[in-house]
């Protein structure tokens, strides 16, 4: 580690209306280090790095780069100073190609002044390849999976050749294989002397990659630790201000009768849609009181399967049998699914989960309005009570239920989506990456909640790219590969290796 | 299936504030809340400003401020009542992120329909009104169905609808206005229909009363019904709305049907006020109605806005027209002044403290 | 060659009875009742001439569209063009193009420039305005009084000419004051709302001079709502012989008078018959149609005389 | 910061396929890409369909298909040239998610300006054209600045702009059309200006040539410049654009300036074609131009669409008007038919496989 830090932030403070998002925070970033930034949802991590990356321009305190004080007027200034940022929320232009997105705002020119499209594509492809993503740079970003979009974001930041690289939850949408490739890249950058700020809620990652960790709590500095030596409990203690007991509950009840039964489910899309892996032979059952995990590599078709089960998949012909409670099930749309007691928490919370400009309260009650109205008129009092209950039950941190959902921190937005679906009182809960971006304390609460729901007889089907999550939470893990069920592993035999082997298609030799 | 445990409150992690009975009242309520509440009525700022200016610049006769005279104020409301009623329907459409360009033409069609059915077909008031409202509603619903089912942008569908409605109205009326004479004879409309051009107590013009009533009704609907929540949700994020179980298509179709219904109602009022139904009536009303909605602070992107704003916007436009005419301003200068005031009124909306 | 459309086909050479003729009627704007009646007059008159077929196009008040309309007529090979131009200058060239190809052209209501047309039939807006003015000066307000003017669309020639003629007409009676002038863009509902405001600003007016009947009717409605319909006198222009027209309004007592602005539709078909069927070479180049002052005394009679629908 | 190394392709990590010279050709190109490519030209589907139908239903005289006669085809392009040029500018505006309602009025203002400057002020063609284009550009840029700086919705700003431009044009011209006479004398415009109403070789009308040239130019700009990417980015995701360092405000202002510039150019052409500049010229052209853009497949939400689509959309509208007129369809029926065809053409766009 070099002596003089690349970046020194001193006394940083930022207030949003009544919320003190950052309070008197000092942070240094040295060349060649991976500096982890930890904290609960809403602790102020994103706010801090938004200040450093020039997105927020009015704040207290000073920033020095190379010892010289700077004051960025916008993101471009920060980029010019060598600071590249991968923001927490995907901010890409759906209508432009991968290459165009990666070079937006700094397109290479030809001698005639036009855009050098070839060079743009070539370089884009190259950056993607270092991340292990073999994507055609001409593809429209709108047709990419969330994980692929995340890789494009990372590729764009890499292409800036910055000296300071800020990553706000870069792996939230990635599966393990991609995460490993990303870590390889990070190590190379570290060797090249790049200073890296790394934000993640996945503790295991930090142990692998971080050199130093700064912990924020409630907008203030809680302490600095060495993640390689400090114990997990110690770190969590710093983050949450108390210890979090056993993350994953044990001693599950016996599951009950079969609730959802899917046999040989396949969807033949009416129109070809690049990038989607529709179900192509899925078998699975979920019993009441059971939590079933869905594993698979990126693009294995977990999301598409959940969408199909919720009646929200792409248009196409469905074949195979689905039953709920032994009665045939084939929802025409989300309404029909909800009517049969099926609820769905989508993976893309901003795109598919929330009305960002609307209040938290309006978001929470949207799905359950029918139970909160009399003759079509909303009962305000009931709504207020219900919202307060839900927000407390899920420990959502919001200034008030009346603030816009957009003002919540990422993890708290996720909880709002969660709360909305739980209000429909489902019998079968479909969850797609439900803890993406959720802090470790809240994760524990969500897990506890899931257990409690399962114990009360709810059936839960959960897709996750975090294998530890699946392993500890689920009674069974169903592994998908290219839209097909390739393995169903009971808790006893579900190991990381077994799941990965199946996910890679190792027991499905014919598809290799 | 038990619902998520409501007792979870008690299980809140240690370190959070002590339990409370009415959590919603304990929310931070500081200076910001006051400011917020003030700006909640921002859509009125422009109206108030224009109102005050109008008082200031109004000609005065015999010591009486002409603008403020009750007759004049009633006239203003009467003059904006048709645009206002259309704008109420338009608000729903714009809130779901759509637009309805057909309203002016539907007004013309309804005016022709009212006159023709009563005068030529000798129908009574009730059947006439019902049939005309039905035509308007069906026309709107059809447009809504095309938007919702085929997914064509509403701008295009209703632009086509505009042309179609205009064409139909011209064919129906033979291209000319159908005059309405009152009486009991054949080719005469029931006297009661002329009430639409009258006033209550000689002060409140009937169309103005209808506008206010419909405006308040719509305001209540938009404040407190599940339907309204669905409307806002679709405008805010259609995909999320669909996944949350909002019946997106049905709401869309309903919204366009409401717009058609109210445009038809405005057409009936139009015919009643002018004692005539002409196929060219209402040309360009769509732009005025949209302007009223947008000046009232509703976003054309959908998902945010209020009915109160729309009513304020319509009144603002009416006051503007009135005060310019009262001062006998040259027509061309009027156009320029109107343009500037509209922009200024919209700019007042922007004073709101923004969320980053 | 057969292909090139006009190939020396001087329309006059093809004239004669017992033949089929396609007449193109290019209308500036169907949305104006006056022009709709003109179309109807042309169509109805043509029904009485064996072999005549009339097609009407609507330029919807757009000069460019009207140019295209005439071009489309030329493409179709019409035998005679009747045009009621939206504006003079912009349509001059295309009318000349038709005329130069041997298509007889009858221009209605509003002239085009130059003399590349066969005949012009129209009224005289200045004269009509003047007649109205003289009626005010001598008959309606001999003692003088306050008059408000409700004018047509700003920028349209008839609005300018009807304003100008009126001022010439009332000049003989200096007691008559024009206290306000506002546009209602030819529209009935605008006439109503403009009148609302003018009544407020000038509660003591004696008469309303509107540039057309619909605006006069709108103003009447506003006055009626204010309870002043009996103390104020209203006059219009156009006097269309249709149920919604000004003649009926005079007959029913809402308007004091209106002044006929003839459409020239029947006259145009008469002339077309002379050119196409009777092979007449020397039709008059200009026919100016006079106006008729319509008051309660002659309203019913004129209505019938002009062939109005009951 | 060194620029990304362009030779890096050769340094691809081991384990990737063998080296190659033109990597861009080796990118996966599957069935999807083919389908994509096919549907890329979807905006032409409607045009082709209407074209074929027009041929089929065209009246035939002396064995010649009137619709297909070269004179008629030239007329069609000439007739849509003004709307087409405006639509080109409108495409940029709509791509950034805005709308420009002022174009028709700016056309009128420019037509008046051209006539007045040449006839009354005795200016030559070049200064006249430059001044008028400057006025249009400045007008557009002002509107853009209000949209970009104050953040008022462009619908409102340009609706106000429409009124203001119309009022200014009427005041400038004294309310009446300013006829243009050609010659060398005072109050006469240079003969050369009348070229705008002529044709090249007697076949290709000059306005049509200008439209095609501008259309192709804009198509190339939209295909290959960084500016175009910024336009798409702002319409697609403004926040992402801002974070990427796209000069959002400047692009916005530029886009409205382009729209004003092209509307002014259309106004000059209008004056040249009609030998007159009238303040009421171009009323309602904004709707036709927007219709051309949207029929061409550009989304009013911004961020997606193509210039080729707009050109196709404008031609489609022109063919539609022409074939209805050639068949002597009654004007009122025409309105209805046009509405239906517009919806049908828009529906053809919906065959496209959708992203998300
Ligand atoms: N634009 C904004 N307006 C109002 N409040 C905001 C805004 N942005 C952030 N906040 C608030 O500031 C606090 C810190 O948010 P921030 O996004 O920095 O949290 P975070 O540490 O990144 O959380 P997460 O792990 O969930 O991403 C939160 O309480 C949040 O609600
Ligand atoms: N071309 C497309 N059109 C529409 N939606 C798409 C398209 N491609 C991807 N998606 C959406 O992206 C998501 C799938 O991408 P994601 O990154 O979640 O994959 P994943 O979760 O890693 O893999 P899995 O398919 O196993 O869920 C889904 O929401 C899917 O609907
Ligand atoms: Mg964050
Ligand atoms: Mg997924």
TrEMBL record, chain A:
This is Sugar ABC transporter ATP-binding protein. SUPFAM superfamilies: P-loop containing nucleoside triphosphate hydrolases. It is a peripheral membrane protein. Gene3D superfamilies: P-loop containing nucleotide triphosphate hydrolases. GO terms for molecular function: ATP binding; ATP hydrolysis activity. It is found in: Cell membrane. Keywords: ATP-binding, Cell membrane, Membrane, Nucleotide-binding, Repeat, Translocase, Transport. It comes from the Bacteria. GO terms for cellular component: plasma membrane. It comes from Micromonospora musae. Residues 7-243, 260-507 form the ABC transporter domain. The keyword Hydrolase does not apply.
TrEMBL record, chains B, D:
GO terms for cellular component: plasma membrane. Keywords: Cell inner membrane, Cell membrane, Membrane, Transmembrane, Transmembrane helix, Transport. This is ABC transporter permease. PANTHER family: ABC TRANSPORTER PERMEASE PROTEIN YPHD-RELATED, ABC TRANSPORTER PERMEASE PROTEIN YPHD-RELATED-RELATED. GO terms for molecular function: transmembrane transporter activity. Residues 1-25 are annotated as: Disordered. It comes from Micromonospora musae. It holds the Pfam family BPD_transp_2. The keyword Cell membrane applies. It is found in: Cell membrane. InterPro entries: ABC_transp_permease (IPR001851). Its main location: membrane. The chain crosses the membrane at residues 38-56, 76-96, 125-148, 155-182, 202-222, 251-269, 289-317. It is a multi-pass membrane protein. The keyword Transmembrane helix applies.
């Amino acid at each position: 580690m070099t002596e003089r830090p690349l970046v020194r932030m001193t006394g940083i403070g930022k207030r949003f209306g009544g919320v003190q998002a950052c309070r008197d925070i000092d942070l240094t970033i040295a060349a060649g280090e991976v500096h982890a930034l930890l904290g609960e949802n809403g602790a102020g991590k994103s706010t801090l790095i938004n200040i450093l990356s020039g997105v927020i321009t009015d704040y207290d305190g000073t920033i020095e780069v190379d010892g010289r004080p700077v004051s960025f007027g916008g993101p471009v200034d920060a980029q010019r100073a060598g600071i590249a940022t991968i923001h927490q929320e995907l901010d890409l232009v759906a209508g432009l190609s991968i290459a165009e997105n990666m070079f937006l705002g700094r397109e290479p020119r030809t001698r005639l002044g036009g855009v050098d499209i070839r060079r743009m594509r070539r370089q884009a492809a190259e950056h993607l390849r270092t991340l292990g993503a073999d994507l055609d740079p001409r593809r429209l970003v709108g047709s990419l999976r969330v994980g692929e979009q995340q890789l494009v974001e990372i590729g764009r930041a890499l292409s800036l050749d910055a000296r300071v690289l800020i990553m706000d939850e870069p792996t939230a949408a990635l599966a393990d294989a991609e995460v490993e490739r990303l870590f390889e890249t990070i190590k190379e950058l570290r060797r090249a002397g790049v200073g890296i700020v790394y934000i993640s809620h996945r503790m295991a990652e930090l142990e692998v990659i971080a050199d130093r960790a700064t912990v924020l709590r409630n907008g203030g500095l809680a302490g600095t630790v060495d993640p390689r030596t400090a114990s997990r409990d110690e770190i969590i203690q710093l983050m949450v201000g108390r210890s979090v007991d056993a993350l994953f509950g044990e001693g599950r009840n016996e599951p009950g009768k079969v609730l959802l039964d899917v046999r040989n489910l396949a969807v033949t899309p009416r129109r070809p849609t690049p990038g989607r892996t529709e179900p192509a032979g899925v078998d699975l059952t979920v019993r009441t009181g059971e939590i079933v995990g869905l594993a698979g590599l990126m693009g294995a078709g977990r999301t598409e399967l959940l969408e199909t089960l919720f009646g929200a998949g792409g248009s196409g012909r469905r074949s195979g049998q689905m039953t709920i409670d032994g009665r045939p099930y084939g929802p025409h749309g989300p309404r029909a699914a909800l009517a049969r007691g099926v609820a769905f928490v989508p993976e893309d919370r901003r795109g598919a989960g929330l009305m960002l400009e609307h209040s938290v309260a309006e978001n929470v009650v949207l799905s359950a309005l029918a139970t909160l109205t009399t003759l079509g008129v909303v009962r305000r009092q009931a709504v207020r009570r219900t919202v307060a209950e839900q927000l407390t039950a899920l420990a959502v941190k919001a200034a008030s239920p009346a603030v816009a959902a957009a003002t919540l921190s990422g993890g708290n937005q996720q909880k709002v989506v969660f709360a909305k679906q739980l209000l429909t009182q489902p019998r079968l809960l479909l969850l797609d990456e439900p803890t993406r971006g959720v802090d470790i304390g809240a994760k524990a609460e969500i897990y506890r909640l899931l257990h409690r729901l399962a114990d009360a007889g709810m059936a839960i089907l959960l897709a996750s790219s975090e294998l530890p999550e699946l392993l500890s939470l689920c009674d069974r893990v169903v592994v998908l590969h290219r839209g097909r069920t390739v393995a169903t592993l009971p808790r006893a035999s579900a190991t990381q290796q077994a799941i990965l082997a199946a996910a890679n298609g190792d027991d499905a030799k014919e598809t290799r | 299936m038990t619902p998520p445990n409501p007792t979870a409150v008690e299980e809140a992690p240690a370190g959070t504030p002590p339990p409370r009975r009415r959590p919603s009242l304990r929310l931070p309520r500081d200076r910001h809340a006051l400011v917020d509440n003030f700006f909640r009525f921002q859509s009125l700022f422009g109206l108030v400003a224009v109102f005050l200016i109008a008082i200031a610049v109004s000609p005065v006769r015999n010591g009486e401020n002409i603008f403020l005279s009750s007759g004049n104020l009633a006239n203003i409301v009467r003059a904006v009542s048709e645009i206002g009623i259309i704008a109420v329907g338009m608000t729903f459409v714009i809130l779901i992120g759509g637009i309805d360009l057909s309203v002016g033409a539907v007004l013309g069609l309804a005016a022709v329909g009212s006159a023709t059915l009563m005068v030529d077909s000798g129908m009574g008031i009730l059947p006439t009104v019902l049939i005309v409202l039905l035509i308007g509603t069906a026309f709107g619903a059809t447009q809504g169905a095309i938007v919702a089912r085929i997914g064509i942008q509403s701008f295009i569908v209703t632009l086509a609808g505009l042309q179609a409605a205009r064409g139909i109205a011209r064919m129906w009326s033979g291209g000319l206005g159908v005059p309405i004479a009152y009486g009991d004879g054949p080719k005469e409309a029931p006297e009661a229909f002329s009430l639409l051009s009258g006033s209550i107590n000689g002060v409140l013009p009937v169309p103005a009363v209808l506008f206010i009533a419909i405006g308040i009704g719509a305001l209540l609907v938009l404040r407190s019904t599940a339907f309204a929540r669905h409307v806002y949700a679709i405008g805010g994020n259609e995909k999320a709305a669909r996944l949350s179980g909002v019946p997106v298509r049905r709401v869309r179709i309903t919204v366009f049907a409401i717009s058609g219904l109210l445009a038809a109602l405005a057409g009936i009022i139009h015919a009643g006020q002018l004692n005539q139904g002409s196929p060219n009536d209402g040309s360009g009303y769509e732009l005025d109605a949209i302007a009223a909605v947008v000046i009232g602070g509703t976003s054309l992107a959908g998902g945010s806005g209020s009915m109160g704003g729309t009513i304020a916007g319509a009144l603002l436009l009416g006051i503007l027209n009135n005060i310019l005419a009262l001062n006998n301003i040259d027509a061309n200068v009027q156009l320029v002044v109107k343009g500037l005031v509209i922009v200024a009124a919209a700019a007042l909306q922007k004073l709101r403290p923004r969320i980053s | 060659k057969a292909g090139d459309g006009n190939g020396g086909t001087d329309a006059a050479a093809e004239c004669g009875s017992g033949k089929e003729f396609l007449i193109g009627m290019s209308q500036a704007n169907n949305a104006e009742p006056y022009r709709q009646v003109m179309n109807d007059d042309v169509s109805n008159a043509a029904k009485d001439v064996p072999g005549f077929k009339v097609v009407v196009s609507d330029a919807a008040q757009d000069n460019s569209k009207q140019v295209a309309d005439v071009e489309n007529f030329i493409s179709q090979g019409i035998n005679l063009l009747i045009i009621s131009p939206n504006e003079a200058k912009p349509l001059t060239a295309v009318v000349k193009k038709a005329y130069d190809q041997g298509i007889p052209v009858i221009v209605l209501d509003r002239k085009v420039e130059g003399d590349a047309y066969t005949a012009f039939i129209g009224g005289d807006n200045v004269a009509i305005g003047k007649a109205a003015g003289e009626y005010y000066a001598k008959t309606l307000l001999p003692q003088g009084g306050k008059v408000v003017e409700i004018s047509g669309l700003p920028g349209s020639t008839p609005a300018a000419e009807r304003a100008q003629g009126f001022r010439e007409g009332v000049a003989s009676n200096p007691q008559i004051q024009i206290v306000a002038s506002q546009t209602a863009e030819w529209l009935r509902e605008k006439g109503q709302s403009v009148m609302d405001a003018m009544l407020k600003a000038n509660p003591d007016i004696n008469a309303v001079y509107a540039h057309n009947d619909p605006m006069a009717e709108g103003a009447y409605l506003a006055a009626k709502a204010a309870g002043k319909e009996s103390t104020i006198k209203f006059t219009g222009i156009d006097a269309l012989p249709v149920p919604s027209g000004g003649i009926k309004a005079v007959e029913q007592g809402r308007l004091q008078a209106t002044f006929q602005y003839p459409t020239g539709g029947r006259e145009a078909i008469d002339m077309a018959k002379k050119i196409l069927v009777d092979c007449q070479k020397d039709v008059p180049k200009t026919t100016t149609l006079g106006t008729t002052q319509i008051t309660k005394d002659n309203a019913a009679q004129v209505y019938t005389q002009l062939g109005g629908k009951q």
